[in-house]
């Protein structure tokens, strides 16, 4: 029976009972009216009429209460079951089924619901199967990569990791997948070093973190010492609007550079050996030139003097190059030793000016000094290394300045307790594209005609950074360049 029929039947029964009660009351009233009040049958008739009215009225009330209790429940209970079943489907419980047979309508709803649930279950099973197949395929690809790879979400949970990475960090897959990398790093020093770039560590200076990022990571793996270059990549995908990119996580990749590191070490050793070997014959050449120039042996004619001067200039240039190479090999091999002592900045500036006086006079360059009238703090640094840096910067400024030009060298103290020594020229300047590259080994700005090895600025930066300082450049084409060395006072 459908709901409409149930409602019609219930209303019909209630109407019939009310009509019966009214008819019974009217009939008994007519009977009592027709009977004489003093008649002996009047009393029993009245009692009998009231009894029938009470019985029929009570029956109507009981039937009404019964219908009031059962009829709404017969509609409400299936609706509750349907609501709960829909909630189960929303919670991905696609095995839920309905058995509603209380009415034709609910029976039809139950059949349609079960048909929908069955289709959802089949679709979910096929989708899950495809997802699992895709997941296994991706895991196979990741594990086939020879470089260690670690993937993390925004909450720093490890989503995937290949066998190479597990071997390097010495952990098992079940110990890391879906676990917090920060929690694991508390007991794993290597993982802590890897995620340091992605997690803010209170009290850690930014410059130290940048320095670590540039340096190769040394790891003992596969029974040997290996070197890895760490690369961090952010994973993003379109957001809900399909346009705005949302960050979803990070990928850490370690590139094995052990082979290149070994080659670089061999190159450094070779350059160091050659530089040491070259110094002896160059020194012998310089000594021979001094003997030739000695007037006591005999005067040289003009042509011989020109040849001697040419040999001297090239020998000095070769000696400077070998010196730069030796300094470079010290830095690269980690054998750079600092001998700090208390030094006045003005002494370093005066040393640099004295070392470049002949070159400045040759090109008629005027050297100006900017030094504060107030007292400036002293430096605790390796004066030989810092003087070398200033000498190199001033030499570059002179070489890249036009004839009859001027160069400014000076120092100043900042409010945050640093001393800045600077060298400024008014040459053609450096293209902003090369501001970072000029500090790389052997790099020379394209189109530069001035001779040089391309090592001076690189070694200067290494010397300054060894003192926990910085060396920067501010330059614009046509306006000259200013190199600033910043050291802690």
Automatic annotation (TrEMBL):
Keywords from the named record: ATP-binding, Cell membrane, Kinase, Membrane, Nucleotide-binding, Phosphoprotein, Transferase, Transmembrane, Transmembrane helix, Two-component regulatory system
Record's keyword annotation contains rRNA-binding: no
Intracellular or extracellular location(s): Cell membrane; Membrane
Membrane topology, from the record: Multi-pass membrane protein
Record-listed E.C. numbers: 2.7.13.3
CDD domains for the chain: HAMP (cd06225), HisKA (cd00082), PAS (cd00130)
Domain PAS: start-end pairs: 134-177
Group of enzyme by EC: transferase
One example GO MF annotation: phosphorelay response regulator activity
UniProt keyword Kinase present: yes
GO CC annotation terms, alphabetical: plasma membrane
GO biological process, one term: osmosensory signaling via phosphorelay pathway
Main location: membrane
Catalytic activity: ATP + protein L-histidine = ADP + protein N-phospho-L-histidine
InterPro entries: BphY/WalK/GraS-like, HAMP_dom, HATPase_C_sf, HATPase_dom, His_kinase_dom, HisK_dim/P_dom, HisK_dim/P_sf, PAS
Domain HAMP: residue ranges: 73-125
UniProt protein name: histidine kinase
Native organism taxonomy: Bacteria, Pseudomonadati, Bacteroidota, Bacteroidia, Bacteroidales
């Amino acid at each position: 029976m459908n709901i409409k029929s149930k409602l019609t039947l219930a209303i019909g029964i209630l109407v019939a009972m009310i009509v019966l009660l009214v008819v019974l009351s009217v009939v008994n009233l007519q009977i009592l009216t027709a009977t004489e009040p003093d008649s002996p049958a009047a009393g029993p008739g009245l009692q009998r009429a009231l009894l029938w009215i009470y019985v029929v009225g009570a029956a109507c009330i009981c039937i009404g209460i019964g219908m009031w209790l059962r009829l709404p429940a017969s509609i409400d209970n299936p609706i509750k079951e349907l609501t709960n079943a829909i909630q189960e489907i929303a919670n991905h419980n696609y095995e839920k089924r309905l058995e509603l047979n209380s009415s034709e309508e609910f029976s039809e709803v139950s059949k349609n619901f079960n048909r929908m649930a069955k289709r959802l279950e089949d679709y979910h099973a096929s989708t899950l199967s495809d997802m699992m197949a895709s997941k296994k395929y991706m895991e196979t690809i990741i594990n086939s990569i020879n470089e260690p790879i670690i993937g993390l979400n925004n909450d720093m949970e490890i989503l995937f990791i290949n066998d190479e990475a597990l071997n390097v960090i010495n952990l098992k897959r079940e110990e890391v997948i879906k676990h917090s990398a920060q929690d694991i790093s508390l007991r794993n020093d290597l993982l802590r070093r890897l995620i340091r770039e992605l997690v803010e560590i209170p009290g850690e200076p930014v410059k130290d973190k940048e320095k670590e990022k540039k340096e190769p990571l040394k790891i003992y793996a596969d029974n040997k010492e290996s070197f890895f270059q760490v690369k961090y990549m952010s994973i993003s995908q379109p957001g809900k609007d399909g346009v705005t990119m949302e960050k979803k996580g990070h990928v850490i990749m370690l590139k094995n550079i052990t082979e290149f590191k070994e080659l670089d070490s061999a190159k450094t050793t070779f350059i160091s050996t050659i530089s040491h070997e070259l110094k002896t014959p160059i020194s012998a050449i310089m000594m021979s030139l001094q003997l030739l120039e000695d007037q006591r042996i005999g005067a040289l004619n003009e042509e011989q003097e020109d040849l001697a001067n040419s040999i001297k200039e090239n020998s000095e240039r070769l000696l400077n190059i070998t010196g730069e190479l030796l300094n470079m090999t010290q830095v690269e091999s980690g054998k750079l030793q600092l001998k700090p002592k208390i030094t006045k900045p003005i002494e370093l500036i005066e040393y640099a000016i004295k070392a470049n006086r002949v070159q400045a006079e040759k090109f008629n360059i005027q050297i100006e000094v900017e030094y504060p009238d107030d007292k400036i703090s002293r430096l605790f640094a390796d004066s030989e290394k810092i003087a070398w840096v200033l000498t190199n910067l001033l030499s570059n400024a002179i070489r890249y300045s036009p004839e009859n030009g001027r160069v400014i060298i000076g120092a100043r103290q900042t409010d945050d307790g640093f001393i800045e020594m600077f060298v400024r020229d008014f040459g053609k300047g450096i293209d902003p594209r090369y501001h970072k590259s000029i500090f790389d080994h052997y790099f020379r700005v394209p189109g530069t005609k001035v001779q040089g090895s391309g090592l001076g600025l690189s070694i200067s930066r290494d010397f300054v950074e060894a003192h926990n300082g910085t060396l920067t450049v501010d330059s614009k084409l046509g306006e000259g360049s200013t190199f600033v060395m910043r050291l802690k006072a």
